[in-house]
């Protein structure tokens, strides 16, 4: 049985982390129809505004070429200059259109999904050339919607073009009989009118495409309860491990390092494995011995091992070890009630140390 989650189980909206990861993978929503409508609108605007100037530039360039052709000598030295002149004129004619299309193409995509760059979609995947996966994509909800869009373009745009050309057909048939400038103006007006009608049809289609695409993208990114839980663990860490790490961090922040503390101790009182308390007495610091570090179980064994490693005396005294561990914090002086017992332990340690 497949372990893949059923789509019906995806009931939770995508989290910010899920959306961020999808963006890193290049999985962002963009409506191609909206971008196409934007490009058509830009082309219509640029042609409508810049066509007269572009035609004037084209007329001047053509006149210059034809009038200068009889006296111009085509040599290897003159050809680069001639091509440069023609290139400048063509840049003036088509440059604004190409610049507008580039700006609109980038703008519509950035406005829809923000600036995103990812090389992951370019990586080869076996699923892209798999016939089974291809058929699955073709008959998926998205595939059927794309097919519906293609048919809608034909159904909507086709009649618009047909009716426009049918209305202009009588004038088109006699276009060759009118002066050239009149023919250009007439053709330009028809072109702009046709582009405007097509733009209205595509704007309607792009609105439907944007709404459906946005909904479908969100549905695909929805998460199951298990995915939400796993993401929380991944982002914040397992609660048990997180609590353990905090406890260790607190212990390290509050207490000195074990090895340094044990090395400074005069004696380690043990119980014998459950408790271990490292004591030090320095008359210059205070009137009573101080607990440097203490520990239970594994920490106690670690303290004992460090004491043996550094040659610090170890005294087994069950009641005293329990009392010290229970009543005195690390870095604090011992209670007055324990003076006698601790003094006896320290006196024995000092005698052993001074014994030849």
TrEMBL record:
InterPro entries per UniProt: T3SS_substrate_exporter (IPR006135), T3SS_substrate_exporter_C (IPR029025)
GO annotation, biological process: protein secretion
Region (Disordered): 1-25
Keyword Protein biosynthesis: no
Ranges that cross the membrane: 34-55, 90-111, 150-169, 189-212
One Pfam family from the record: Bac_export_2
Keywords for this protein: Cell projection, Cilium, Flagellum, Membrane, Transmembrane, Transmembrane helix
Origin: domain of life: Bacteria
Gene Ontology cellular component list: plasma membrane
Family: Belongs to the type III secretion exporter family.
Protein name as catalogued: Flagellar biosynthesis protein FlhB
Lineage, highest ranks first: Bacteria, Pseudomonadati, Rhodothermota, Rhodothermia, Rhodothermales
